[in-house]
Amino acid sequence: MSATRDLVGVAWTGLMARKVRTLLILLGPIIGVASMVGAVGLTESAKGALQVQLATLGTNLIIAQAGGTFGSQNPTLPGDAVRRVDSVSSVTSAAATTNLSGVISVPVQGASTYYEAFPVPVRAADDSLPSVLQVRLIDGRWLDSADRVLHLRSVVLGSGIAKQYGYLPGETRTIRLNNTNFGVVGVLGKVPLDPTLDNAAFVTQWAAQHVFDTNGKPNELYIRTKDGTTAATATVLATAINLGGPDQVSTQVPSNVLAAQAQANKTLQKVALFAGLLVLTVGGLGIANVMSISVIQRSSEIGIRRAVGHSRSKIGAQFLLESLFVGVLGGVLGALIGIAVVYLVSSLEHWVVEIGYGQIPIWMGLALLVSVIAGLYPSIRAARLEPLETLRLG
Q: 252: which strand partners?
């Protein structure tokens, strides 16, 4: 027991006597383990955030768009498209919007040139759009029946365009749509399932028809379905809307994009894990190289120990223990750094922290295995040195 304790002490002392060299040896296992822990943790945390987002937003929203025919510039859906969609038994609610082409939104005098080059999308929208999207207003109110009945020129801004216009909550603000003044009555919150709405301005269908001379037909529908029926509903909506007519209708489920993003994160995780294994392998070569040089530098120490009676096996065991310490230290430090990175990035990105603690011992074990294998050659080389040979090397 005493001999083993002495051997461990000598190995630890030999490792700590040259701190810069030891740090360089440790970099391989540290970076390798940290990258693998971070890869799994960050991708799982991002996936967890997406799952929370999907749970909050729902996976039962469908967007139906008018496809038109070849050469048509402004395809539309039937005027009663919402009523037709509501007749589908699996649909719980629907709202229509119309993209108004040729309408220029200008927040202030003198800005028309810029917004003609970079126009803000203007949409006519139903009263029920926020409830169908399940998005709250962050200021003011949404368009309602009073705006239509009283022929009010009211407009609601998306959150992105409100920020771009410098809109302040509660302020009285007027913007111009094609030289007609509209009063801002509210700001719609962010719409994660359709970010294009964040940079749009919304008016009533009455304003679209009577101020901008549109035909009153929608070209995009937002539809909520019963849970578990989204895919099946999406396949029948085109027929329900055009009733077998020539109008083309395309449907998409925006939550599928988030699900695909989570799958992409899995692919990135595999790439990052491979990179971590590559770093560990390169680190192992570095350990073997540095420890081989260390054997030459410490040849006089080896010669003295052999001269006082230490066996070859003890000399080899000393250097092998040093490699083992490198693997343990590198694995522990790498795991701690990886966990810290996951917590830091998750905090900055507002993700749900997900760390595969059960996998960390596997990565640490790999670091230990690589370090021990890398230390075999230097250990054998040190054990084979003869006392007289050390005088020549030293």
A: 63
Distance, CA of 38 to CA of 159 (rounded, Å): 34
Least Cα distance to 222 among 232, 237, 239 occurs for 237
How far, in Å, CA of 240 to CA of 103, rounded?
Answer: 31
Which residues contact residue 256 at a Cβ distance below 8 angstroms, ignoring those fewer than 6 apart?
none
- What's the Cα-to-Cα distance from 292 to each of 116, 295, 377, 381, rounded to whole Å? 70, 5, 8, 8
Supply 217's token pair.
Answer: 């037909």
Contacts 24+ apart (CB under 8 A), 339-343: 339/37, 339/41, 341/34, 341/38, 341/41, 341/42, 342/37, 342/38, 342/41, 342/42, 342/45
What distance in Å separates the CA atoms of residue 274 and residue 321, rounded to the nearest whole number?
A: 28
pLDDT in tens, 186-233: 999 998 888 889 999 999 999 999 998 888 789 899 999 998 888 888
User: What's the pLDDT tens digit per position in 11-61?
Assistant: 777 777 777 888 888 888 888 888 888 878 887 777 666 666 665 666 788
The answer to whether 125 and 167 have CB atoms below 8 angstroms apart is: no
Q: CA 261 to CA 50: how far, in whole Å?
A: 8
Q: Which of 177, 394, 193 is nearest to 304 (CA)?
A: 394
The pairing of beta strand 220-225 with beta strand 174-177: unpaired
CB 355 within 8 A of CB 44: yes
What is the C-alpha to C-alpha distance for residues 70 and 74, in angstroms, rounded to an integer? 11
